Amino acid sequence: MGQLDALLQVDGSEFLAAVIVGPQQTILGSYAQVGLDTTTAQAPLVTTQRIFSSPESLTALAEMQESVFYDLDGRRLVCRPIIVRGKIYVLIVLTSAESTYRRTLNKLVKAIEKTL
pTM of whole model > 0.85? Predict the structure, then answer.
């Protein structure tokens, strides 16, 4: 298990799933709650692949602080760009409809920035 995997296991454990992707579409860390179905657990990864496949999407995301998408069950897929030393990383977390996420997400982003 890599350093970012371990970080997501601890600091991202309140989320249903999470993935951090590097500038070359490299998965640097991922996490999914035990028992989560495969399709739901893969949602953050599929979203990052879509973002990185379109340079316009990546540029637009870098200019925003956060993007939030909802699925049919009300779960939120939250995309947060992290810029470290001029490189864009993308953190995507999946959270349940009824949970708050911003404080935990901000804490996780700060921990990732320190690690990178």
Answer: no
Sequence-distant (≥ 6) Cβ neighbours of residue 99 within 8 angstroms: 14
Q: How far is CA 47 from CA 42, 53, 85, 101, in A?
A: 9, 10, 24, 18
pLDDT tens by residue, 19-54: 998 888 888 998 888 888 888 878 777 777 777 677
DSSP per position, 40-96? HHHHHHHHHHHHHH-HHHHHHHHHSS-EEEE-TT--EEEEEEEEETTEEEEEEEEE-
Q: How many CB atoms lie within 10 A of CB 28?
A: 21
Structure tokens at 90: 């993308």
Q: Among residues 23, 4, 32, which one has the least CA distance to residue 94?
A: 32
